[in-house]
Amino acid sequence: MENNKDQELAKIRKDLKEMLVRDLSLEDINPADIKDDEVLFGEGLGLDSLDAVEIVVLLQRNFGMEVKNMDQGKEVFYSIDTIANFIYENRKKA
Amino acid sequence: MKIAGIGLVFAQGLGMGALETALNRGWVPPQEVEAPHIPGGKTPAYLVNLEALPDRSVLKKIRRSDKLSKMSVLAAADALRDCGIADITKRKLGLIVATAFGPHVTTFGFLDDILDHGDAAVSPTTFSNSVHNAAASYVCNSLGINGPTLTITQFRFSFQAALQLAQTWIDQGRCDYVLAGVVDQYGDVLGYVADHKLTTAKDGKIKPFTFKPTCQIPGEGAAFFLLGRENRGNIYCGIDAVHTGQAPDRGKPEDLTIIDADGMLPDETMYRGCLSPDVPAAAYAPLFGSMMIGSAFNTAAGALMIKKQLLFATPVADNPAGIRLLVENGPASVASILCAGYNCYSERSEILLTKV
Amino acid sequence: MIMNESIQITGLGVVSAAGLDLAAALLSFEQGVRNAGPVSLFPTVMHYPVFEVKHLPPEYRLEGWRTLSLACIAVDQALKEAELGDVSGLRVGVCLGTTVASQLNDLEFYRSYRKGKTESMAAVDRFLKGNLSEYIARRIGARGPQLTVVNACSSGTDAIGVALSWVKSGLCDIAIAGGSDELNHVPYCGFASLGIANQELCAPFDRDRKGLNLGEGAGVLIIEKRSSALLRGKASDLFLAGYGSSNDAYHLTAPSPEGVGLRASFITAMREAGIEPQQVGFVNTHGTGTHDNDLVEGKVMADLFGPGLKMLSTKGYTGHTLAAAGGLEAVYTAAGLRAGWIPASAGFRTRDEAIPMAPVQEKTLIKASYAISTSMAFGGNNAALVIGREAGL
């Protein structure tokens, strides 16, 4: 069970990284180089407010996830880990 | 006011060096572009290949921009580099971006989003880039321009309107310098519209002096001019008069008339009204393609000729009406050049370039 | 104090959800009426309320050209007040701003194009003949300079600023300036995707503000040299005193947190008008009701004018009308100076401790010679207009 969860999360994280690099046009960044716990906004990866609303749409299109508002978005979008966990938890509910 | 720097990007490269090479070389055939909606599936076009440009470092900062914005930033940065004034962005520097069609490719991309994903699942990044002034925003952010910033659209006279406004901003002290430029992009939909409404040149040649019937080949690119009053920078020439709608009588003939004829009107015979047997004529659209903003590229060619005291032959010299054409390259004494254009209502615009 | 050759405002024209003309809008303002509702102009699955213009007069209904229709209404009103009938013998320029009319964003045309069977080029023809300033100039026979400003949400204000430059420089004696935009499917989706469209009615400067409502309309000023107006036997109490514009050079969609460009725009506009901040009777803000916009604007104004400045957002009555906003708000600002009052800033209830000032909460009397209207836009554009009124005329 735990093993399955780990595998599933690892897959989500990989997909997420590829999605961000591709759809946010992060030229010169290799998806594998993004750390799981790296801060995505501000410092870290340096994403901004427009990326945040773009990620809302990307999660909707690619993972069928609804982020209700940006207050929730701020918590969820902290790092690859937090987004992956959000997707995993909400997929389970569905 | 004076032109103190020019930057441009077009089918034959980036910068005034590329323009000079193109003027020297003369006509080259256009590319063949995939055009799914045009009969035959292909169309000739003079398109910018961003990947082939030598220096793309300025594009690093604008990762999510579209091609329209990238061409704008490249040409604007090139103009500031060309002027050589080190502290230019610390001066009161304004920006005017003129475009006939704006970011239509991105706009259609956004319409794709609406049609494919529904109203509630569209990309905010695509939307933001589909706003007409996105290109100006990227230029300001990339180059640190803080002055008044305006994006305007006036179809065939977009460039002329920009020059006219730049002049007032400089005269009134709103700006020390104005970076005024044009940008337009080729796209499937407008390519289809142009092919449908106009005649595309089968032999790859725009023939500006056939007047009727005309033929067009779509072009794209950006051209920016650093304009100011001071005698600093890389001075090309003065821009002394810009008129749209009515043409003044200047008395003295110029050394060359450049016409904006490029096949974007089915009938361009009105251009004969600004040509005279006393003044040789040229038209450089065959080098960069048919564009509503083409007068900016013709103006850049004119400015280069005055600066270098060189004349460049008109690249396609088909001449059924027996117009006196400029047919040879070579050194010459060039004091003034008139660039003339007409819109679809047969209204005339004139840009007069004079040696400083 | 009047500058040696003042640029008078001799005509005002305005149409929005608040009213089909200025008198109707002032009545809505006075009564606190907010004419918002669900979208009726196009089908959509989303439920953000909008401020649509209802009951467009039939003689102004141009099929597929709603932005132009709205512009024509406002232009005709302004020409009427300015007593400008036949303009063919005059040097008249046209400078109007738009977002919608500058794009070929007709969904039906594009849908058929994608299917590979474009039977009709009508949408393309409308687009090619529908450059806003060119269309208006040709409609009334104006032969001066033409320019359509596409500076997103500051277009209307910038267009009026351009016209001021034209008239001052002598490119024309009279200018028709402002902005027009229809409520359109494309920006409706766009603003929703940016997460700044409000499910409820907008509440500019309120602590609990949740975004903007889109609207539509047109607002137009006729400006002209005092000497030109006098020659026509026309005198006006209103004048256009200054314009300032500056770019944040910060971000495509977010304002600079310090409001760098907005501050510079205020200062430039006041300098051109030759006035000090304490002479400003009120500011009609951009005030969209989004978190960032109102925060930055409030901070800059409190710093420049002091927290006691009277200010409001009329977007609570009109919605955000994009490129028209600067036109509408210049007209409403001029009308406020002339009428001697401004309305309660609709939607505001609770003060935001992060913003060092609050908008007026009731109909407020104004005794001042100057007021400012501001716009902030996508792309970091900021613009401000100083409008003046000569007492005693």
Structure overview:
Chain A is mainly alpha-helical. Chain A has 4 helices and no strands. Helix content of chain A is about 60%, strand content about 0%. The longest helix of chain A has 22 residues, at about 1-25. The relative contact order of chain A is 0.16. The mean pLDDT of chain B is about 95. In chain B, helix 2 (about 65-85) packs across helix 5. In chain B, about 30% of the residues lie in helices and about 20% in strands. The radius of gyration of chain B is 19 Å and the shape is globular. Chain C has one domain (about 10-390): Thiolase/Chalcone synthase (Peroxisomal Thiolase, Chain A, domain 1), CATH 3.40.47. Chain C has 12 helices and 14 strands. Chains in contact: A-B, A-C, B-C. Chains B and C meet through helix 3, helix 4, helix 5, strand 6 and helix 6 of B and helix 3, helix 5, strand 4, helix 6 and helix 7 of C.
Q: If classified by CATH, what would the architecture of chain B be?
A: 3-Layer(aba) Sandwich
Q: Supply Rg of chain C.
A: 20 Å
Q: What is the structural class of chain C?
A: alpha/beta
Strand portion of chain C: 15-25%
Name the helicity range of chain B: 25-40%
Q: What letter string, H or E per element, gives the SSE order of chain C?
A: EHEHEHHHEHEHEEHEHEHEHHEEEE
Low-pLDDT residue intervals, each spanning 5 or more residues of chain B: none
Class per helix and strand makeup of chain B: alpha/beta
- The strand count of chain C comes to 14
Strand content of chain B: 15-25%
Q: Looking at this structure, what is the CATH superfamily of chain C? A: Thiolase/Chalcone synthase
Counting H and I runs of at least 4 residues, what is the number of helices of chain C?
12
